């Protein structure tokens, strides 16, 4: 053990003690010898590198053009073209756009590595605030860097890069087509029932059924305080399929609440109710969340996302939270078999606000509805003052 300690002491004594105040801790290593790149000393290598960079920019431009070609020629969708078990549209669009970006990036990197002037600089650290002279020197260096980059001396590469980058805008422009028709066009053409933001599949005489199971509802099935998630019977009759079915179901989502008729505070709410049963859109008017948190004693409906609260006894008005509009109410009636039905579609668009949407007072909405639907609604027991 003593021999080991003596060896350690000998080892420690072999290093001179350093004084941090007087001795340099490390000598200045300086810069390594600068090695010139082949393109700096060989004109042929420089030309070869220039052709390689131009090739990458050209491949990027070709990939952008192929993206546009594939967008129009390869059939997308469920019944579209399939290659090797994959959707051909997604495959070709992804590959061509990816290669366009990849080749452009490789070209820029290769230009910087092989053709931009290769000079090493060192400078001492300086205060954060620069003097006017330093700022002027920085501007001069930026100008020199622009010259050294070769943008001015290599117009062919510069134009190839700018051309390939410009062609990358084509995919972005072409994909604007996927935005589809405007709301006004869809509403006018009605490619399927309830198309557009202004309408749903609710209509006069359409039965109110329970969500998921699709069973119709009689007023006597509900007790005071019951809240039921409902949909129009149209969702379950097989007339809609695929995307139109899902769109129709999401927009037509409705909640039924039965309260004591004497608790209803608004005349319009009373006119569109049946024995204290009211129906409102399930879609919050703030950002479109589905709502169904019911305060049974107050008839308040709470959105769990941002706490917007609506009074179902008073035309669904907002009493708290960020929502800017009341919940649309669905006018209710009863058909000849005693089942709850809608007297019309929602008198106003459901869900969140959009560009073309106007917000009206509930009395204005009721007046417009009465002109168009009140007479026909009488066959379902409608009368002012409620059923």
From TrEMBL:
Keyword Transport: yes
Electron transport is among the record's keywords: yes
Cofactors demanded by this protein: [2Fe-2S] cluster
Domain of life: Bacteria
Protein name: Cytochrome bc1 complex Rieske iron-sulfur subunit
Keywords: 2Fe-2S, Cell membrane, Disulfide bond, Electron transport, Iron, Iron-sulfur, Membrane, Metal-binding, Oxidoreductase, Respiratory chain, Transmembrane, Transmembrane helix, Transport
Membrane topology: Multi-pass membrane protein
Protein family: Belongs to the Rieske iron-sulfur protein family.
Residue ranges occupied by any Rieske domain in the UniProt entry: 244-341
Parts of the chain that traverse the membrane: 53-74, 86-109, 156-176
Pfam families found in the cross-reference section: QcrA_N (PF19297), Rieske (PF00355)
Bias (Basic and acidic residues) ranges: 7-20
Ranges for region Disordered: 1-24
Location in the cell: Cell membrane
Chief location bin: membrane
Function, as annotated: Iron-sulfur subunit of the cytochrome bc1 complex, an essential component of the respiratory electron transport chain required for ATP synthesis. The bc1 complex catalyzes the oxidation of menaquinol and the reduction of cytochrome c in the respiratory chain. The bc1 complex operates through a Q-cycle mechanism that couples electron transfer to generation of the proton gradient that drives ATP synthesis.
UniProt gene name: qcrA
């Amino acid at each position: 053990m003593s021999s080991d300690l003596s060896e350690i002491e000998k080892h420690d004594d072999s290093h001179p003690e350093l004084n941090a105040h007087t001795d340099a801790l490390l000598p200045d290593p300086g810069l390594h010898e600068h090695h010139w790149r082949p393109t700096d000393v060989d004109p042929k290598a420089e030309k070869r590198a220039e052709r390689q960079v131009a090739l990458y920019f050209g491949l990027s431009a070709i990939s952008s053009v192929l993206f546009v070609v594939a967008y129009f020629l390869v059939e997308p969708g469920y019944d579209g073209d399939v290659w090797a078990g994959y959707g051909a549209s997604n495959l070709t669009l992804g590959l061509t756009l990816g290669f366009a970006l990849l080749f452009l990036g490789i070209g820029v990197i290769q230009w910087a590595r092989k053709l931009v002037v290769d000079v090493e600089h060192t400078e001492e650290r300086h205060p954060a605030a620069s003097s006017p002279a330093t700022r002027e020197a920085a501007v001069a260096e930026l100008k020199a860097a622009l010259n050294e980059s070769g943008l001015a001396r290599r117009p062919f590469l510069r134009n190839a890069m700018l051309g390939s980058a410009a062609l990358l805008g084509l995919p972005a422009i072409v994909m604007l087509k996927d935005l589809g028709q405007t709301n006004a066009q869809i509403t006018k053409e009605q490619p399927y029932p309830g198309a557009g933001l202004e309408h749903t599949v609710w209509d006069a005489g359409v039965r109110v059924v329970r969500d998921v199971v699709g069973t119709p509802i009689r007023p006597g099935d509900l007790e005071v305080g019951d809240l039921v998630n409902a949909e129009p019977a149209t969702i379950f009759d097989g007339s809609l399929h695929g995307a139109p079915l899902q769109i129709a179901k999401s927009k037509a989502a409705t909640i039924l609440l039965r309260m004591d008729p004497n608790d209803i505070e608004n005349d319009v709410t009373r006119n569109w109710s049946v024995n204290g049963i009211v129906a409102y859109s399930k879609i919050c008017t703030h950002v479109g969340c589905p709502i169904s948190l019911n305060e049974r004693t107050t008839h308040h409906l709470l959105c769990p996302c941002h706490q917007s609260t609506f009074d179902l006894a008073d035309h669904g008005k907002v009493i708290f939270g960020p929502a800017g509009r009341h919940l649309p109410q669905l006018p209710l009636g009863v058909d000849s078999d005693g089942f709850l039905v809608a007297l019309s579609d929602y008198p106003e668009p459901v869900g969140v606000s959009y560009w073309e949407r106007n917000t009206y007072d509930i009395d204005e909405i009721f007046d417009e509805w009465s002109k168009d639907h009140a007479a026909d609604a009488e066959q379902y027991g409608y009368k002012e003052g409620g059923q």
